[in-house]
Amino acid sequence: MTSYLVRRGAASIVVLLLVSIVAFLLIHLQKGDALTVKLRQRLPEEQVQQLRAEMGLDKPLWEQYWTWLSGVLRGDMGRSFFREQQPVWDRIKAALPVTVELVALAIVISVIVGVPAGVISAVRRNSLLDQVTRLFSVIGLTIPVFWLATIVLVYGGIWFSYSPPLTFQQFWESPMRNLEAMWMPGLILGYALSAITMRITRSSVLEVMRQDYVRTAWAKGLGEQVVIVRHVLANSLIPVITVLGNQFVYIIGSTVIVEYLFHLPGLGFVAFESIATRDYFLVQGTVLVIGAMVVAMNFLVDLSYAWLDPRVRLAGTAQI
Amino acid sequence: MRYVNDDEESYWSRMFRKRLTRRQALRMAALGGAGALSAAYLACRGEGPTATVAPGESPAAGVSSVLADYRSRFHYSKLKDLPGQKEGPKYGGTFRFSHYQGFTGAWDITGPEADALASFAPNHFNGLVTFRQDDFSNVHNLYEVVSDLAQRWETPDQLTVTFRLPQGARFHNVPPVSGREVTSEDVKFSLEVYKQSVAQGPILADVDRIETPDRYTVTVRFARPAAYFLQSLTYPVFLVFAREAYERKEEVFVRQPIGTGPFVLERWDPPNIYSMRKNPQYFRKDPRTGMQLPYVDAIEAPILNLNVTLEEAAFRDGRIHTIWTHTRRAFDQMLATFPDNVGQLTTPPPGFQPYITVKLDKPPLNDQRVRAALQHLIDIDAIVEGILEGMAGPGLAHDFSFFGKEWPWTLEELQAMGANMGYDPQKARQLLSAAGVGRLRIKFMYGIGEPIHAEVYRTVANFWRQGGIEVVQDEVPITEIARFNAAFFGKQWGDVDVMGFSFAGPGMDEDQYCYGPLNSRSPRNFYWVNDPTLDELTERQRRQFDINERRRTVEEIIKRELSQSYRIWLVNIYKMAVRRGFVFNVVDTIHAWHNIGWGSKGNEMVWFSRAP
């Protein structure tokens, strides 16, 4: 187990390093820099060079990257080129809980909706309920999140007087005000995710229901509730958890547009804004943190296998 | 953290106040089950209300009937007769409107970001002079200069302007100025700093020296006559600040705006909120009523960064009091959200319209005939009717109000001035042939951050293709704005031949649309224009104090520019703004520095006739 953790930890660091290099190169290879965004006018060349030097943009790329990386290793992610030189970590620290909360809300909603719907759909296979549930799932899979969010904002306002709050408060500052801003985007993301969860749960439950031990349970005369909950559901959840872990990446990606549309100051919003303004350190920091979240989530999913399925062992080399 | 709707009904009570009726349940079911139908509805729904010209009115020549109708129905002159206007201004209330981030958060009004700060700083600072902006003003008249910090001014000769300051005008009661009185030394110091700055410097280039004969008098002396000066001074970047704040630049001056202005900054927290409270010792009175300003207690502006969907939802829900709509359909919808809403139609500032800059020194674009051909291949009427719902006219980035005109030039008027405009593919082919151009390939770069402008540019590309030109489109999304800025402002065009851009100037005087873009020595000439005739003319108009004489020179400039097809003109898209019926003095003007444009000028004049 220990050697597994060490190996995975080392691999994660390499992955994060590669992610940061790719992000750094992608943003720096584009024409224009933070200074051109900031200025929007023509200055004498010597003044431009002076400003560029003040921002550290006159140095070779490798040196700029190394400056940033060595700062990160010392716990300093640099300062924003905008926002009055605000430390990047301060900005990320404020945005991180928003995204984490949104993703958590989406996952909770997807589990609450998707797992029971998938089980019911499988147990009542080919019934009207199954058809309705599958339709619900197909719609969720096909409708893009940005479209659904836009429709909710436009027609929610026209028909139901719904509009999200225009300012945001963290959960610990005011839980109710926070939920005002969060419930609808959480629901939209959760719906998209629950459609996938429902499909996976349904197919997984159907597969498990064909197993010998389930047939034995029925033959023993156990009640439907006991068979489904104790014998079927518990064994159907492993692929669901795997998929949920993988869907985390999808949800993180979707938060960019949902946070923008609902004006939630999360990591997606920060990433969008920092890319647009070529706020290099902020882009790097955001990508690094999102990358770390994805790596950590994959790691947790791997660990959960062993916990959920005793047949899986993490020690050695061959099990995973 | 203050909340925007603290003094209003809470969000949850508003949500749950409505019991779910059978009809609503059916609606919800319909919404949940028929998303696809909604999409179809969006795609296939008919046009908005068909515009008709009101009885007794006829469409203006060269203007579509839809536009004539809207210009008539939503004319600024109707604002002075709105219900509630007679009772006069009342005090109190919190004014709410959507803002955008716009600048980096450093309040350095003397730095390279001064142009961007012009949208925010007038809440907190005053200039020497300003322009009139209330429900009773002629919003198309750029030349109504009125007093701001200067009580009055005299121009004894063409080389001198003397400003008289009021006694008792004070800076905000914030350290290090702590509410001290503004003096002529503050004005002198501010103008001298501005003279060295990137943004303001060019407009003060003709200033020779600034004198302060006494505590309340400032005399500006010029090296050469500067006819553009006073009007240009109303541009909200010439704001008076205190020396002691400026001298502590990093810890004070860039951290918070400390001026004499009507509001004291409370919170700048993008992308959350920009809020301020009234300055209790503000010196200025409403010139029309004589009442002390500002009228409202506070301003709370959620920073929505042009998230149109959210803005519209917020306006529908009553959370913001004004909105600037981008399409006629949205304008009609927003007007209908509350029965007493007030609409207003204006044109944008002369420079804010989609048009095309040409790399004038690159063959074959250095041939006027080729540029004229490109212009003749564009069907402007089709763009106006097909994309812009009739709410536009032909574009030209010059200030029509300089000539006393209320509305922009029509196509016929532009043609009469020598514009090579008007859809004529046959003429275009002849011009190309005469220029010896067989196969023309153009790389066309344009921004797509403003969706309507992007559609215009795409359509232009298609018109050119129809005319047999090979067009390579380089669309620049908002996330690539740095690339666009580097190309345009930095003149790093690479292999780009023409560039769609939507911003010139800005400025309050026609000089910014003549000298600025067209004089070869101007720092704002991003347009590759290098024409000795224009150099002479643009310089000459700067020295002409006789308005008629100056108008004749400017007309010569426009004719010269049009005859040479230096820029390719497209459309001037009208601005459509809506405000709630209880809000007064929120008026949109041609220069757009009000809150329903992109600024904050005039917020001190806003008043409510009742609680929101």
Care to give the gist of this entry?
The complex is a heterodimer of chains A (320) and B (612). With 320 residues, chain A is mainly α.
Shape of chain A, please? globular
| Helix vs. strand class of chain B | alpha+beta
N/C terminus separation of chain B: 22 Å
Largest sheet composition of chain B: 5 strands, mixed
- Calculate the terminal CA-CA distance of chain A, rounded to whole Å: 12 Å
Described by the principal axes of the CA atoms, the overall outline of chain B is globular
Within the largest sheet of chain B, what's the order of strands? 16-15-17-13-18
What is the H-and-E element order of chain A? HHHHHHHHHHHH
Query: What is the CATH architecture assignment of the domain at 349-573 in chain B?
Result: Roll
Give the total of beta strands of chain B: 22
Biggest protein-protein contact in the assembly: A-B, 60 and 61 residues
Q: What's the assembly state of these chains?
A: heterodimer
Q: Structural class, from helix and strand content of chain A? A: mainly alpha
Classified in CATH, the superfamily of the domain at 349-573 in chain B is Dipeptide-binding Protein, Domain 3
Percent strand of chain A: under 5%
Low-pLDDT sequence parts of chain B: 1-8, 15-21, 34-59
Average predicted confidence as pLDDT of chain B: 87
Strand fraction of chain B equals 15-25%
Describe what you observe in this structure:
The complex is a heterodimer of chains A (320) and B (612). The longest helix of chain A is centred in the C-terminal third of the chain and has 38 residues. Chain A is globular, with a radius of gyration of 24 Å. Chain A contains twelve helices and no strands. With 320 residues, chain A is an all-alpha fold. In chain A, helix 1 packs antiparallel against helix 12 and helix 7 packs across helix 10. In chain B, 29% of the residues lie in helices and 17% in strands. Chain B has a domain of 225 residues: Roll (Dipeptide-binding Protein, domain 3). In chain B, the strands form seven sheets. Chain B has a five-stranded mixed beta sheet with strand order 16-15-17-13-18. Chain B has a four-stranded mixed beta sheet with strand order 1-10-9-8, with no helix packed on it. The relative contact order of chain B is 0.15. In chain B, helix 12 runs antiparallel to helix 15 and helix 18 runs antiparallel to helix 19. With 612 residues, chain B is α+β, with helices and mostly antiparallel strands. Chain B has 20 helices and 22 strands. In chain B, a hairpin with a 2-residue loop joins strand 6 and strand 7. Classes of the chains: A mainly alpha (320), B alpha+beta (612).
